[in-house]
């Protein structure tokens, strides 16, 4: 049976309130000799402090909440690594929630993390294009959290008047289109996620505008995932059409799905179909052929968001993250 705080207090010869102040981190500090007695008793008895009691005593905990859309996506795991690299040296632990892009689960995660008295919450992932009841609920939960002393940062797009880290999705897609046309590509296809997902829309529409509608042979929509890229890419490529073609997938995981679809159909990459993605997840260099993409410093995005959420600056801030085109073998015309 777990040792209780009452047992620690009795062993140290102090009141329960005094033991709580020592072990739960209250702003009221007993004398150093009392602190030493209580801590020695707690160690001797193997007492483990109660996290929620500590949070109540301090009005917050040493926890940082991180809410992501899909932890299996390397984009989000890299961001999580960046957040932890800031939080851990400050003595803070990161609580993670993965929502599967369900806006109701996202709001529920914010409320749960607020109930755990986290010092800060970071929400990573694309916002939705339209304002609906789910989005209004999220805003209300975030406002309540801020009113109770919590700090927030978003990753993706500017959202309301909250602080945000904003990758250059449109600019990166435009520069990729320019680089591919300069390399000699003339016909394009676009593989995008759901039209309600702002990140997907920003990347796909910017790419199409830059290459021109007359050069886009087809567009296909699938889930913003590897399986979505595979299924939508397979269906579109089976319909046939002019070859060769350069396929732009709005995320690397969708591009990897499209690459698998090409293998299944016996299409060579980049001979029959060239493929480009977006994000530059770490696994791309292990893929054959290596994948052309638009690089984002995903770890740096996590670092920037954590510094926004845990820093001392007041007021809303937006930090913009540049995107860099990385041409590789999957779009090489002379391969």
Describe this protein's structure.
The chain is an alpha/beta fold and 335 residues long. It has 3 domains: 5-58, 434 Repressor (Amino-terminal Domain) (Orthogonal Bundle); 63-167 and 299-321, Rossmann fold (3-Layer(aba) Sandwich); 169-296 and 324-331, Rossmann fold, CATH 3.40.50. Helices cover 44% and strands 17% of the residues. The chain contains 12 helices and 12 strands. It has helices spanning 5-12, 16-24, 32-45, 51-58, 74-87, 103-115, 133-147, 169-182, 198-211, 226-238, 252-265, 298-310; strands at residues 63-68, 93-98, 120-124, 151-155, 164-167, 188-192, 216-221, 245-249, 273-276, 293-295, 318-321, 324-326. The strands form 3 sheets. The chain has a 6-stranded parallel β-sheet with strand order 2-1-3-4-5-11, with helices on both faces. The protein has a 4-stranded parallel β-sheet with strand order 7-6-8-9, sandwiched between helices. The chain has a two-stranded antiparallel sheet with strand order 10-12. Strand 8, helix 11 (252-265) and strand 9 form a beta-alpha-beta unit. The protein is elongated. The termini are far apart.
